[in-house]
Amino acid sequence: MSTLNGKIAVVAGGTRGAGRGIAIKLGEAGATVYVTGRSTRKEMSPMQRKETIEDTAKFVTDAGGHGIPIQVDHTEEKQVEALFNRINKEQNGQLDILINDIWGGDPLTNWEKSFGEHDLQDGLQIQKQAVQSHIITSHYAVPLMKKNNKGLITEITDGTDYTYRGNLYYSLAKISNIHMALAMAADLKNHNITSVAVTPGFLRSEAMLDLFGVTEENWQEGAKVEKHFIASETPFYVGEAIKHLALDTDVNRFTGSVLSSWQLSEIYNFTDIDGTQPHWGNYFEENVNKKEFDF
Questions:
Q1: Which of 30, 155, 228, 242 sits CB 3.0–4.6 Å from 5 for a disulfide?
Q2: Residue 51's pLDDT is what?
Q3: pLDDT, tens digit (0-9, with 9 covering 90-100), for 193-204
């Protein structure tokens, strides 16, 4: 299978960042992509960002697929249920790919505060937005996949293991995403449903470009602000990784695994949009001061 023509995907949290890159790459392969999130052209989410689900859906269509934007707050069960009821009706019960990339935790994470000092309600909201929302979304997606005895579920996370990530609430959310992928793989093994977790490296998202005062054209200048930014990758890199997983007829060999954009770039031999193959794993091992992660 060389295209995703006729395949139906949901990118939950497809407004910006990795979600947008993944949605566009699935569209590039011909998929119909339901792009969900809170930010629309009429209503800005608490993230206060300019990117919208309508923009992402247009990019999906422009890339060769069919983008369908639907405003959904994935922490609200009724909204999620309505989403999959609509897909069930519009696509005759077909759902092939679910990408869980719901996050929105950046303004809630205080990297300067340790546990007990960090705002409790913000910490709990991170779990609601980045863990509970994934559970709710998968709960309503899985029955469609079971009915067709096939599917690919991808949990987008940060990191490939269970080590501390600099903030208790952030760590708990990202590690929960990893374990959710593993647990779903075990629960769904008899239904031909593949469940994996995938992490990008240092993501050169819209928000990071803005933070460092650069654009994609001169992004290297951002390394003057944060030296490790020199090893960053665009959202299209993890998008290419997910596209290749979706195209792989033997993808079930990965079920229950934690995968990375750089690992998959070696397996499938693809590059980022500038022709390079960023490898955050190697860069981290060679250049990042690990003392801050030693306990």
A1: 30
A2: 87
A3: 999 999 999 999
pTM summary value: 0.95
How far, in Å, CA of 263 to CA of 241, rounded?
9
Residue of 6, 32, 8, 10 lying closest to 19 (CA atoms): 10
**Beta strands per DSSP E along 92-179:** 97-100, 151-156
The helix/strand/coil state of 258 is strand
The span from the CA of 159 to the CA of 261, in Å, is: 11
Instruction: Please report the pLDDT score of residue 1 as a whole number.
Output: 47
Residue that the structure tokens 């995968």 belong to: 259
166 phi/psi in degrees, rounded to 5: 95, -10
The residue type of 72 is V
Which of 261, 268, 267 has its CA nearest to residue 283?
261
Contact (Cβ atoms closer than 8 angstroms) between residue 83 and residue 140: yes
Task: Calculate the alpha carbon distances from 17 to 59, 102, 174, 288, 293 in Å.
Answer: 13, 11, 16, 23, 26
d(CA 128, CA 67): 27
Q: Cβ distance 40 to 230 under 8 Å?
A: no
* Strand order, beta sheet including 193-199: 66-71, 32-37, 8-12, 97-100, 151-156, 193-199, 258-260
**CA distance linking residue 74 with residue 23, whole number of Å:** 17
Determine phi and psi for 249, rounding to 5 degrees.
Answer: -70, -15
Q: Mean pLDDT, 10 residues at a time, over the chain (295 residues)?
A: 90 96 98 95 79 96 98 98 98 98 95 96 98 98 97 97 96 98 98 98 94 95 95 98 98 98 98 96 85 47
269 three-class SS: coil
Q: Which of 284, 256, 254, 255 is nearest to 267 (CA)?
A: 254
Count CB-CB contacts under 10 A for residue 165. 19
